[in-house]
Write a structure and sequence with these properties.
single chain; 319 residues; alpha/beta; Rossmann fold; 7-stranded mixed β-sheet; two-stranded antiparallel ribbon; 11 helices; 40% helix; pyruvate
């Protein structure tokens, strides 16, 4: 989990820099190296890693428009993923989907890019698993803002009625774009809504990766054994804006520095440093390996070619 969290953080830190290449600082004007909008998950690593450590390639994961941490934790091919974000032909979707539409059938990962869009897809995957008599589960990651969308409630109602192996992970980073959760949501945490559907709910405080690991372990075991859906809400922190270039006028200027003092990677590293069977050399080896994989992925993307214009509609009409 520590190595995965380091990999995610380093990946997002690198993307924050690469994304600005060729763009003006104001409103990110210009195509640059990486086209389109960019939503980074720096600070939200525990939600993805704490859950995905319990999953296999046969389990389905759907992600929202802030998907990199979920994709990395699920085992999406890092080189192909980065090439896709760069818009290169070696990408997962041959450069046609980009950052908000990452798909990797090899590990059953998909990103819809629209608020709440992944939950119905996860319900479909969970229903498939049940109808085929498999023990695979489906996990839908969403932001707390999506818990107020119709797809959330409709999907959970069906998942409860059909007793499906579905887990919805709500990442509460306090803001739906720029709107505070307190101004948009009538309950303190969305796991409380589980009782309305007669399903299980769990709440993880303080962006704690170990607590997320334990809550996820129980939810996955429940789903695999036919005990139905679970809602997990984790209190997490978005260190960066809703998108790269977000002026963040809605935030107090001391908010992010204060949150970084509670950084989950730092806390996990301190805990591991105190463990008898983990040395500083072990931690350094994990960090080096994680960063090397990220560096190789970025270099692969830079070295790859852009799709040829005549190939723009390939796999569209014949799919």
């Amino acid at each position: 989990m520590y190595e995965q969290m380091v990999k995610i953080r380093y990946y997002e830190d690198q993307m924050a820099e690469v994304y600005m290449e060729g763009k003006t600082p104001v409103f990110n004007i210009g195509a640059g190296t990486v086209p389109g909008e960019m939503h980074l998950a720096t600070g939200q690593e525990p939600a993805a890693v704490g859950m995905c450590v319990h999953l296999t390639k046969e389990d389905t994961v759907t992600a929202p428009h802030r998907p990199h941490h979920h994709a990395i934790a699920k085992g999406v091919d890092l080189k192909k993923m980065t090439a896709e974000i760069f818009g290169k032909e070696t990408g997962l979707g041959k450069g046609k989907g980009g950052h908000m539409h990452l798909f990797d059938p090899a590990v059953k990962f998909s990103c819809g890019g629209i608020v709440g869009a992944g939950i119905p897809h996860a319900v479909g995957a969970a229903m498939t698993s049940k109808m085929k008599g498999k023990d695979s589960v489906a996990v839908a990651f969403i932001g707390e803002g999506a818990a107020n969308a119709g797809s959330f409630h409709e999907s959970l109602n069906l998942a409860a009625v059909w007793n499906l192996p579905l887990i919805v992970v709500v990442e509460d980073n306090s803001y739906g774009i720029s709107v505070s959760k307190k101004a948009s949501t009538s309950v303190a945490s969305n796991d409380l809504r589980a009782s309305a559907y007669g399903i299980a709910g769990a709440y993880v405080k303080d962006n704690d990766p170990i607590a997320m690991y334990k809550a996820s372990e129980q939810a996955v075991a429940r789903a695999r054994s036919g005990q139905g859906p679970t809602i997990i809400e984790i209190e997490t922190y978005r260190y960066l804006g809703h998108f790269q270039g977000d002026p963040e006028l809605y935030r107090d200027e001391t908010e992010v520095p204060g949150l970084r003092q509670l950084d989950p990677i730092t806390k996990l590293k301190m805990m591991l440093s105190e463990a008898e069977n983990v040395s500083d050399a072990d931690l350094e080896e994990m960090e080096t390996r994680a960063k090397q994989q990220v560096d190789e992925a970025y270099q692969f993307a830079r070295d790859s070619s852009y799709p040829q214009p005549e190939a723009a509609l390939e796999d569209v009409f014949n799919s």
